[in-house]
Every structure is written in C-alpha cells, then in structure tokens.
Design a protein that fits this description.
Blueprint lengths: L4 E6 L15 E2 L2 E2 H9 L6 E4 L12 E2 L7 H12 L4 E6 L7 H10 L5 E6 L2 E2 L3 E5 L3 H10 L4 H6 L3 E5 L13 H6 L2 H5 L4
Parallel strand pairs: 1-4, 1-6, 4-5, 7-10
Antiparallel strand pairs: 2-3, 6-9, 7-8, 7-9
Helix pairs in contact: 2-4
Length: 194
C-alpha cells in the first residue's frame, strides 16, 4: 500500500527583513503561499496552511493557528502534525520558491520509521523542506514547552535520517529580503526537477 502523505505550508513569521508579508508576496502572479501549497499538493493530500499570526485569503486550503503565539516554525510544525490525518507530513516554508516534489518522493522512499527525514545541501540541513512522522510530535511539544524554539536544534535531538538533496537544484532557497526576489531565475529552474 502506498504511503499516505499530508502536507503543511508554514506561513508564519513577521517578515521583518522583507518589510512586507512574504507569504502574500507574488511570484509570477501568485502569492508565495499559493505557489507552495499548489506545488506541495502534487505529492501530499490534504495540504494545510499553518497561517501564523494572521488570516490568509480563503483559496480552498484549510488554515490552522500555530501551536502557540510567536513560536516560529516550531509552532507551525506542531500544529500541522496535530492536524495531520496521516502518519507522515511533508513540510515546507511559504517563502521557498523551489520546492522539489522529486525530493519529497525520495524522502518518503527512504523513511524507515524515523521521526523525520531531513535533506541537506551546501547550506546545511533544511528542516523546512522535510518529512516528519507523527512520532516526532512529543519531542517537538517538549521543546516548545521548554521555550527552546529552534527547529534545527529540535531536529538534531530526534531520530532523523539525513539525506543528500544537492541534486535537487535550490530546493532550500528562501526569500528573505526584497532583493532576493530579483535574484530568482524561475525560468532556468523550470527546466530542472521540480
């Protein structure tokens, strides 16, 4: 039986460096959160939006609050795992324009009961483009309760399989500042594995 995979787009964050709400900024005529949810929907069903501190436009995806206010990606991930109807959850950040469905296929294929499967690239581990199992929830909730909100720190203390994702071009890239939008070459990326 094929593995059932839910998906979550983490849309929270204050977007301080960007100066505007990153999830709502447009790339090729669509908000970044829509681009992320649409792409993730190719490999995961259902997909939820962990909206952070605001309401997003209702475009058909369910929306949930983070597990606690001002808890960053950790709070969005916990809320998404609580919501998920499936054992496995594919997670991406809304500000990642190069989500790789091929990489998610690989993460599911190699998962063998670990709390998470996290890819790495030349920039290090990418816990915001990763696969989480329901078994990770207790550990993540304890981290949240302790006030230690670093998702990378939490991942380092779980049962995690790390895999090399470097063949999936730019999957971990995110948009943090207005100038980052101008550096995106989306046409070049379309010719590669999405």
């Amino acid at each position: 039986m094929p593995v059932q995979l839910a998906g979550a787009v983490l849309c929270g964050g204050t977007s301080e460096r960007m100066g505007a709400d990153k999830a709502l900024m447009e790339l090729e005529g669509e908000p970044m959160f829509v681009r992320a949810a649409r792409t993730l929907g190719a490999v995961a069903d259902p997909v939820v939006l962990a909206r952070g501190p605001r309401e997003l436009p209702n475009l058909g995806w369910p929306q949930i609050d983070d597990a606690a206010p001002d808890s960053g990606p950790l709070g969005g991930l916990i809320a998404s795992l609580r919501w998920s109807p499936h054992e496995l959850l594919a997670v991406v950040a809304a500000d990642m324009p190069f989500i790789s469905t091929g990489l998610f296929d690989e993460l599911v294929e190699v998962w063998d009961g670990q709390d998470a499967v996290v890819p790495f690239n030349e920039d290090g581990t990418q816990p915001l483009h990763a696969l989480y199992a329901r078994s990770s929830l207790g550990h993540l909730e304890r981290k949240l309760g302790s006030g230690r909100l670093s998702l990378r720190g939490a991942v380092e203390e779980m049962s995690v399989l790390m895999i090399d994702g470097r063949k999936h071009d730019r999957f971990g890239a995110n948009v943090n500042r207005p100038e980052d939008l101008g550096l995106l070459d989306l046409r070049k990326h379309r010719a590669r594995d999405l």
